Amino acid sequence: MCTVVVRRSPGQPVQILALRDESTAREFDDPGAWWPQFPDVVGGRDRTAGGTWCATAVGTGATGLVVNRPAKRDADPGAPSRGVLPLLAARYGVDWRDHVDLRGMASFALLLATPDRALTWDFDGSEVRTTEHPPGTHMLTSGGPEDRKADRHLPTFTATGDPDTWRALLRQAPPQDDPGALVVRHEEDGKVWATVFAELIEAGPGRLHLEHSRRPWTDEPWRTLDLG
Question: Which of 41, 45, 96, 159 is the most exposed place for a label (fewest CB within 10 A)?
């Protein structure tokens, strides 16, 4: 997943827009409770590695989201997949690092968003840097050229927390070969990489409202999942 917008206001459920940019050939399942070891955790499941890019624990309202970072693109043989990280963050919160060995993992940025806190852990392949975000609206990307998304779009996301408005921003243009676009599509080495999934999350303790779409730039209705 390459773009996350998170809005946190004291006393309110956390609001999240999560966009997954991935190879169009990589199959995945829509959000559900796919992991028996984490029965309270809901997210889309990557069929290749079995993990996820975004997961929410219904009981606590904690959501973990991961984006790839370019510093170390490939994991060492035998290292854990980055797809386990959102599951651990949703389940264990700030203690997620007690449950995974980061040695050899590819680089990432992991966001933990709850109604009370929002933190990011940036891992460059050797060191972890932690940032705690104040209340407000923040954007997380895969870095590099994609950082221009914040310059273009974050002010509009900040101006309103209305989910319909956030959804409308995705329909302003079809997928573009532009790393600063919200919805993307480009070809590389004969493969197509594109925005393959979008989800809008509103989460609080004991309640999850999730809307999702595989074609968010169109007028097709989004599917809804309500739990709690």
Answer: 159
